[in-house]
Amino acid sequence: MSPRQMKLGLFLWATGHHIAAWRHPKAHVTAGIDIDHYIQLARTAEAAKFDMIFCEDAAGLREANVNIASQTSRSIGFEPISLLSALAAQTERIGLVSTASTSYNEPYGLARMFASLDNLSGGRAGWNLVTSASPIEAANFGATGLRPHADRYARAREFATVITGLWNRRAPGHDGESFSVRDPLDIPPSPQGAPVMVQAGASDDGRDLAARTADVVFSAAQTFEDAKAFYDDLKGRLAAYGREPDDLKIMPGVAPVVAATEAEARAKHDELQELIPDDVGVALLSSYLSISDLGRYPIDGPLPELPESEGMKSRQALVIEQARRDGLSIRGLARYFAGARGHWRLVGTPAQIADELQARFEGGAADGFNVMPSWFPGELDAFATLVVPELQRRGLFWKDYEGRTLRNHLGLKGPG
Amino acid sequence: MHLAISLNIAAAVGEPVLDFSRISRVVRQAEAAGVDMVIISDAADQPSSSPFEATTLLAALATVTDRIGLVASASTLAHQPYNLARRFASLDIISHGRIGWNATLAQNPREAANFSRPEGFSNDDFRRRAEEFINIVRLLWVSWEHDALLFDKVSGRFHNPDKMHLIDFRGEFFSVRGPLNVARSPQESPMLVMSGLADTELDFASRRADIVLLNKRQPSEARAACDEIRRRAHEAGRDPTTIKMLAVAEARQEHDAGSLEDLCVSCGCDGIVLTVQPRVEAFVDFVERLLPDLEQPGFTKAKPGKTLRDRLASGEDRRP
Question: Stretch B263-289: mean pLDDT, rounded?
Answer without folding.
Answer: 89
